Structures are given as structure tokens and as C-alpha cells.
Automatic annotation (TrEMBL):
Gene3D superfamilies: Aldolase class I
Domain Radical SAM core: 86-311
UniProt cofactor(s): [4Fe-4S] cluster
Name of the molecule in the record: Radical SAM protein
Origin: domain of life: Bacteria
CDD domains xref list: Radical_SAM
SUPFAM superfamilies reported for this sequence: Radical SAM enzymes (SSF102114)
Lineage: Bacteria, Pseudomonadati, Bacteroidota, Bacteroidia, Bacteroidales
UniProt keyword annotations, A-Z: 4Fe-4S, Iron, Iron-sulfur, Metal-binding, S-adenosyl-L-methionine
Chain segments annotated as transmembrane: none
GO molecular function terms listed in the Swiss-Prot or TrEMBL record: 4 iron, 4 sulfur cluster binding; catalytic activity; metal ion binding
UniProt keyword annotation of DNA repair present: no
Pfam families assigned to the protein according to its UniProt record, in alphabetical order: Radical_SAM
Length: 447
């Protein structure tokens, strides 16, 4: 016996209806007449299978129709297990320091003074060698974080990147490196060195237009807006295949009162395909979403970015197709080493003892807090009553593992990502469909 999938969507899109299934990721559109026909067939699946067998089988293959004995949640469970435990790309986040040359009001870090010493650097090199030998990692993604990591670019980032790259190369394994930086310390010379290191991806933040940004993100009052943009231009000029995630930290006033169109217009067109705008609400200003779940200002500027030629794909920060897990931190092969050798997982919490999960040992092993590790990895983030009952679970996969550890079961509803999302599911699906159509048109034009 067959039944309709719980994860089917039928989204109005002008004179057509988008059909989307979040288990398979299949998406297409039909005319009004075709939509009426298909809905009639869906009301009688037995007749549908007998009268239009080849079409019926397609809808089974696409997961719109499923065997009643089959639990589609198991598809997401399997994807989750593979991505969390079997993906052996080791993402190693390193904080050379927690110091920063900015003091943004919303930052959750204390910026204690200190930098990574030679003893900890040697432990890290031993650790990577052990991960290759004992865990058989498939590659290393070295991710520089902080504080502001570029404060110690020459002292720590350059030599340690080179040494870890050589270790991976000697073992015939791929090496990648990237950085989250405020961008103010990027020079042309450093950009060239970053290219030599294979540093291809950067996350750099602006806080609105020039006036608003300089009020929030400055160096003891000195403006940083133009300096940060110049740093981005240096990256684009000197690293051929660079991608810069340009994170726009915003609250309601940022999108309403900042001239965000001007921000993206002033960046030269030759750089735009290398820049991916990412709009992230400042967490202290999160509130219940609008009645329809959309922030019109955010959507308007996102669409404008696409028109201007930026690499803008997904307007949502919490929805994605077949992602399998909520956050990169949820992956087992993810570790963050602080400058003092203490081990963390979450990069969005203060570096206090409360969040320590382990400590790097002299021989390169990590002494883990096993109780905290069990809480983080024993269950997938969506393995709870709220998420398993939710139609949107495959697109969202629930709160991150860190929030789940911190929140009692009776308060689970307070951390549902969809309650504060600035983009609703229907808008996400329309954008997904538009992206697919543009990709198909581009492929046809090439052929």
C-alpha cells in the first residue's frame, strides 16, 4: 500500500505550482490544469497506479509517494549518520588568540590577552599526525578563528599552516585552509601569502552601510569600513579562485535605515561573482518572526544582490536541502583548539570553562569530557518529539547540538529555528526553484 509523503510541498508561483519533496530534493512546476489533475490522482492512489503506472512510478522514485511500511525519516537519519560520523574531512578550528582590534557591542567573547605558544603549536602538529594514523582522516580543513586571527598572521598562521600542509602532503592527503576575520588587517602582501598557503575561503563582516558600520565596528573610534572593503579587494585580486562570504550582521534598524543597496553597488562588478552575501541577524535582537515569516527588507536586498551579479543562492540561514545536520559543529570530525590548548566544539559561545569539552595532551591526543560528548552525539539534533512531528524537519534538522545541550526538554519549543527565521519555507522553495531554472537555462545556452 502507498501513501503520500508527509514532506510534499505545493507552492503557488504565479500561474504555476511548484512541486517539491524535501526528502528527495526533487522540484518542478506544473500548470494550473496539471496541478488539478495530479491532486485528483493523489486522492486515489490505487487508481493512479493502475491508470497512469509510469507516471505513478516516477512520483514513487521522487519520494512524493511512498510505501506505507517505509519510514521516510530513516532517509534523513541515514544522511545524518553519514555526514556526522562518516565524513572524515577533519575541520580543525584554531584560535591563535582571543584578542581583537575591534570591540563590537554584540560580541560574546571576553578577548582575554594571550597568544598560542610554541608548546601548543607542537601539540597541534602531533595531533594532526595522530588523526591521520588513528582516525584515518581523509583531508584537513584548517579554519582560522579568534579573536582576530590575523593579529598573529606572520607569527602563527603562516608557519603552522605551512607545517600542517606539509604533514598532509607527506601522507598524500588534501589540505585546505580558510579564515574568519574582520578583514581590517588584510594587506596586498598578506593576500599574496594567503594564496601561497592555499587559503581560498574567508568570512568577513560588515554591519550595514558605511555610517552605521563605523559606529559599531571600529578600532578605538577609527573607522574600518573602507579598510575592510580594500582588504576584500586585495583577496579578489590576488587569489584567483577565492570566495568571500560577506556576512551582514543586522538588526531591524540595519535593514530599514542603512542604505544597503549602496553597499553592494559600490563594490566593483569584477569582484561580485567571488562574493557571497550572507545576512545574519544579531542574536541578541532575535524575536518572533513576522506573521508571514518573511522579512521584506532582507528579501529585497537579497534579490538585488542577485541582480547585481553576486554569488547569492539561499536567502535562508536555517533551511537547506538534504543537509543532514544543522551546523558544521555537529560533525564528529570537528574540533576547535583555543590558544591555551583547551578544546571546544561550538564557535558561537564564550571561551569559558563551562564550554570546554577537552584538553590537548602533550602527545597530541585529546582528553575528552565523555559525558558532554555523549550528550552532543548520542542522538541527531532532530531526534525529539517536536522535530520528528514537524513537516519541515528535513529542511531544518532542528536546533544545533549546543542549544539542545543547554535547553530542558520542556523548553525545546523556545529554540526552534523556524520561530525566529526571517525567510519562510515557501519563499525558500521559490528561490530554490528559480535557481534550478536559471541553472538549466545556463546549461542549455552553453550546449
Amino acid at each position: 500500500m502507498y501513501q503520500l509523503s508527509f514532506y510534499n510541498y505545493y507552492v503557488n508561483n504565479g500561474d504555476r505550482t511548484i512541486y517539491f519533496n524535501s526528502i528527495s530534493g526533487q522540484i518542478f512546476s506544473v500548470s494550473e490544469q496539471e496541478h488539478i489533475f495530479l491532486q485528483n490522482q493523489f486522492n486515489d492512489l490505487i487508481s493512479f497506479e493502475l491508470e497512469y503506472n509510469s507516471v505513478f512510478k516516477k512520483f514513487v522514485d521522487w519520494e512524493f509517494i511512498t510505501d506505507m511500511e517505509r519510514d521516510q525519516k530513516d532517509v534523513i537519519r541515514l544522511i545524518n549518520h553519514k555526514k556526522v560520523f562518516l565524513d572524515k574531512t577533519y575541520r580543525l578550528v584554531i584560535n591563535p588568540t582571543l584578542e581583537c582590534n575591534f570591540r563590537c557591542w554584540y560580541c560574546y567573547e571576553d578577548h582575554v590577552a594571550g597568544k598560542m605558544n610554541e608548546e601548543t603549536i607542537e601539540k597541534i602538529k602531533k595531533h594532526v599526525k595522530l588523526m591521520i594514523k588513528e582516525e584515518r582522516i581523509s583531508s584537513l580543513l584548517l579554519d582560522w578563528f579568534g579573536g582576530e586571527p590575523l593579529l598573529y598572521f606572520d607569527e602563527i598562521i603562516v608557519p603552522l599552516s605551512e607545517q600542517l600542509r606539509d604533514i598532509m602532503t607527506e601522507n598524500g592527503l588534501p589540505f585546505f585552509t580558510q579564515a574568519t576575520t574582520n578583514g581590517s588587517l588584510i594587506t596586498e602582501e598578506r593576500a599574496k601569502k594567503m594564496n601561497e598557503l592555499g587559503m581560498k575561503h574567508f568570512q568577513i563582516t560588515l554591519d550595514g552601510d558605511e555610517k552605521r558600520h563605523n559606529r559599531i565596528r571600529n578600532m578605538n573610534g577609527a573607522p574600518s569600513y573602507k579598510q575592510i572593503l580594500q582588504g576584500i579587494y586585495y583577496l579578489c585580486d590576488n587569489i584567483p579562485d577565492v570566495n568571500v562570504t560577506l556576512r551582514i550582521n543586522y538588526d531591524t534598524q540595519t535593514l530599514e535605515k542603512s542604505n544597503m543597496k549602496e553597499v553592494f553597488e559600490m563594490i566593483p562588478a569584477k569582484y561580485r561573482h567571488k562574493i557571497s552575501p550572507s545576512f545574519q541577524r544579531v542574536w541578541q535582537t532575535e524575536s518572533k518572526r513576522n506573521e508571514d515569516g518573511n522579512n521584506p527588507n532582507k528579501l529585497a536586498i537579497f534579490e538585488y544582490c542577485k541582480e547585481l551579479g553576486y554569488d547569492a543562492e539561499n536567502p535562508s540561514s536555517c533551511l537547506s536541502v538534504l543537509k543532514g545536520h544543522t551546523c558544521y559543529v555537529d560533525r564528529y570530525y570537528h574540533t576547535e583548539i583555543n590558544f591555551d590548548g583547551k578544546i571546544y566544539k561550538c564557535t558561537a559561545r564564550a571561551y569559558s570553562d563551562e564550554y570546554v569539552l577537552g584538553e590537548l595532551q602533550d602527545d597530541g591526543h585529546i582528553l575528552w569530557n565523555q559525558e558532554k560528548m555523549r550528550k552532543m552525539y548520542a542522538k541527531a539534533t532532530f531526534e525529539n518529539e517536536m522535530c520528528l512531528a514537524c513537516k519541515h524537519m528535513p529542511l531544518c534538522t532542528g536546533p544545533c547540538s549546543q542549544k539542545l545541550m543547554e535547553t530542558p526538554k520542556e523548553l525545546l519549543h523556545t529554540i526552534c529555528p523556524l520561530t525566529t527565521a526571517d525567510v519562510n519555507v515557501d519563499t525558500f522553495i521559490r528561490n530554490l526553484y528559480d535557481g534550478k531554472m536559471k541553472a538549466l537555462q545556463a546549461a542549455e545556452s552553453i550546449s
